[in-house]
Design brief:
The protein is mostly helical. It is built from 25 helices and two strands.
Length: 554
C-alpha cells in the first residue's frame, strides 16, 4: 500500500509540474528583435544579466512555434557574433527541440546551423555531435520498419548532416568521431541501440566514404554485446543459486535486433556492404575468440555472394596455414581462422561439395608436410604446434560433420582414404589428445564404422595420460548454433543440421534411402534440411557421435 501511495504522489507531482511548464510556456513570449538585442548587448557591452537569463530560458522552457521562429530569426541576424566565447549559447541552440516542427521551421533552423558552421568552423564538432545524439531514440520497438513520424524526424537530421558535409567535405571525419563518441552503451536498451544503428546505416547512403568505418564501429559494439552475453550465460551456469534476471533479457534482445538491422543492410546494399563486411571481419572478428553470434554475418555474406565466399575461404586458409606474413604471437589468430574455416565449410548451406573437398585436401597435405618437418618433436607442446592442432581438428570436425556426404559413395570413400587420416591420428604430435572430446568421439565413430581409421586405442591411451597431464583443448565452435530468435529467422535456413547416421538402430536401408535423396538433389550444393529448425549443436554429444540439440522452432 505504501508503494502504491508513493507512486500516486509521484504521478500527481509530475502532472503538476507538467501543467506548470505548459502554463509558463503559454505565458512566455519573445518580442521581435529581443534576442538580437540581448546578444548584441552581451558581446559589445558585456551586459551579462539578460544573456544568462536567456540561456536559462532556453534550457528550462520549451518554445512554442512563434517563439521558436523569433529566436531563430534573431540568431540568424547575429551569426557573425557567435564566436568561441559564445559556446554556451551555441550549445543551448543545439539542444532546443526542432526536428518535429513544421517543415518551414525545420528549414529555418537548418539554415541557421549551416550559416553558423560556415561562419565559425570551430563550432562544427559540437553541432555534429548534437545532431548524431538525436539518433539515440527511445520508445517502442518496431517490426519491419520504424513509424513514419519517426522516419520524418530522422530525415530532418540526416538532411542537415548531408548539407553540412556537402558544404565542407572534411567534416565527414568529425561525423565519424561523433558517431563513435555518441554510441550508446549496450545496456542502454534494445530500442536505443537499434535506432542508433539504423541511423548509422542511413548515414552510409549519403556519405559512402564512411561505410566501412561505420560498419567497424557497429561490429565492435556488437562484439562487446556478444561477449557480455556469453559471460552472462556462463555465470548462470556456474552459480548454484537462481540469479535475478531481467525478464526482458535486454542484452540478448539488443543483440538480436542489431543483428537484424545488419542483415537487412547486407541484403539491401549487397556488394558494397558485403565487401566492407569482409574487410571488417578480417580486422575485427577474426582475432576475436569465443563469441557466438556476430560471426554469422559472415555466414550470411558468403551465402549470398560467391565472390565474397571465394575471398573469405582463401583468406581464412592463408591465415590458418601461415601463408600470410604473420606477426609474432599470431598462433591464436591462426587457430581462430581454422575454426572459422571448418565451421563455414560444415554449416553453410551454400558451400559446394567441390569446395569442401578442395579444402580438406589442402588441410591434409599441409598437415602431412608439417609432420614430415617435425619428426622427433615432443608431442605435447601445444603452444608451438597450435596451428597444426587447429588444422587437424578442423579435418576431424569436417569428416564427422559431413559424414553423410563423405561416405555415401565409393568415390567419396576413396577420397577420404586419400587423406591418409591414420598418419594424422598416429603421428607423434598426437592431435587427438588436444581435440575437443565431442569431435574426437564423433570422428572416431564415423571413421571406425567405415574402416578408415581406428582411434579407440589412442583415445584410451590419451585418457590415461590426461590423469597426469591434462592438455587444454578449445571447445569453441564459431557456427554452433545460432540462438537469437528474431534474426535467427534469416540465419537458420542458411545453416546445415548435423545428421547422425551412425546412431544406434540405424541400418543399411537408411543409408541407401539418404543416398537416393542426395543424388536427386543438386549434387554441387549441400542443401538444407527440409524442416525449419535450428541447426543442431556439435557441442552437445553422446558417444559415439554428436547428439542433435533441442531444436528451436522458427
Amino acid at each position: 500500500m505504501a508503494v502504491l501511495a508513493q507512486k500516486s504522489v509521484a504521478s500527481l507531482m509530475r502532472k503538476t509540474l507538467d501543467r506548470q511548464a505548459a502554463n509558463a510556456r503559454m505565458k512566455f513570449v519573445l518580442k521581435p528583435k529581443q534576442v538580437e538585442q540581448i546578444l548584441t548587448s552581451y558581446v559589445r557591452d558585456r551586459n551579462s544579466g539578460p544573456y544568462f537569463e536567456l540561456l536559462k530560458v532556453l534550457k528550462d522552457f520549451p518554445l512554442n512555434d512563434d517563439n521558436f521562429r523569433k529566436l531563430i530569426d534573431d540568431s540568424l541576424n547575429c551569426v557573425v557574433l557567435l564566436e568561441k566565447e559564445m559556446k554556451p549559447y551555441v550549445e543551448a541552440m543545439c539542444n532546443i527541440q526542432w526536428i518535429n516542427r513544421n517543415q518551414d521551421l525545420v528549414d529555418l533552423y537548418k539554415r541557421f546551423l549551416l550559416n553558423l558552421v560556415t561562419a565559425h568552423t570551430y563550432h562544427c564538432p559540437r553541432i555534429l555531435s548534437n545532431l548524431i545524439k538525436l539518433f539515440r531514440t527511445d520508445g517502442d520497438n518496431w517490426d519491419d520498419r520504424p513509424p513514419q513520424e519517426m522516419l520524418m524526424s530522422w530525415s530532418n537530421v540526416h538532411s542537415t548532416i548531408a548539407e553540412i558535409v556537402a558544404l565542407m567535405p572534411l567534416t565527414s571525419d568529425l561525423v565519424l568521431q561523433a558517431i563513435v563518441d555518441q554510441f550508446p552503451y549496450y545496456k542502454a536498451g534494445c530500442v536505443v541501440n537499434r535506432t542508433y544503428i539504423h541511423n548509422l546505416i542511413w548515414i552510409t547512403k549519403y556519405i559512402p566514404s564512411l561505410r566501412e568505418p561505420i560498419m567497424t564501429a557497429i561490429v565492435n559494439r556488437m562484439v562487446d554485446m556478444d561477449a557480455n552475453l556469453v559471460e552472462q550465460e556462463k555465470n548462470k551456469l556456474d552459480t548454484m543459486f537462481e540469479m535475478e534476471v531481467d525478464a526482458k533479457d535486454d542484452i540478448r534482445d539488443t543483440l538480436d535486433y542489431c543483428m537484424l538491422e545488419m542483415l537487412r543492410w547486407l541484403e539491401d546494399e549487397r556488394d558494397p556492404a558485403l565487401n566492407s563486411l569482409c574487410n571488417v571481419f578480417e580486422r575485427v572478428l577474426l582475432p576475436t575468440h569465443g563469441i557466438r553470434h556476430v560471426q554469422f554475418l559472415l555466414l550470411y555474406t558468403i551465402s549470398i555472394s560467391q565472390q565474397c565466399a571465394d575471398r573469405v575461404f582463401t583468406n581464412l586458409w592463408s591465415v590458418a596455414a601461415g601463408l600470410h606474413d604473420m606477426r609474432p604471437g599470431a598462433v591464436a589468430t591462426r587457430r581462430t581462422a581454422a575454426s572459422h574455416l571448418a565451421g563455414l565449410l560444415a554449416r553453410c548451406v551454400r558451400v559446394p561439395n567441390s569446395r569442401l573437398i578442395h579444402y580438406l585436401r589442402l588441410m591434409s597435405e599441409w598437415c602431412h608436410s608439417y609432420i614430415a618437418a617435425s619428426q622427433d618433436t615432443v608431442n605435447d607442446n601445444n603452444k608451438v604446434h597450435g596451428a597444426f592442432y587447429a588444422i587437424c581438428h578442423a579435418i576431424f570436425y569436417l569428416v564427422a560433420f559431413k559424414n553423410h556426404h563423405l561416405f555415401m559413395s565409393k568415390e567419396s570413400l576413396n577420397f577420404v582414404e586419400s587423406l591418409n587420416l591414420p598418419r594424422l591420428v598416429t603421428c607423434s604430435l598426437n592431435p587427438l589428445r588436444t581435440c575437443p572430446p565431442q569431435v574426437t568421439q564423433a570422428f572416431s565413430s564415423v571413421t571406425r564404422s567405415h574402416q578408415v581409421v581406428y582411434c579407440q586405442a589412442i583415445i584410451e591411451k590419451n585418457m590415461r595420460l590426461s590423469l597426469h597431464n591434462q592438455l587444454p583443448y578449445d571447445e569453441w565452435f564459431p557456427y554452433d548454433p545460432y540462438t537469437l530468435p528474431i534474426s535467427g529467422k534469416i540465419i537458420w535456413p542458411l545453416c546445415m543440421e548435423y545428421k547422425d547416421l551412425l546412431k544406434e538402430g540405424d541400418d543399411e536401408t537408411q543409408y541407401s534411402s539418404l543416398k537416393r535423396k542426395l543424388d536427386a538433389e543438386d549434387d554441387d550444393y549441400l542443401m538444407a534440411s527440409p524442416n525449419t529448425k535450428l541447426a543442431s549443436s556439435l557441442t552437445n554429444y553422446t558417444s559415439p557421435g554428436f547428439k542433435t540439440s533441442e531444436s528451436i522452432i522458427m
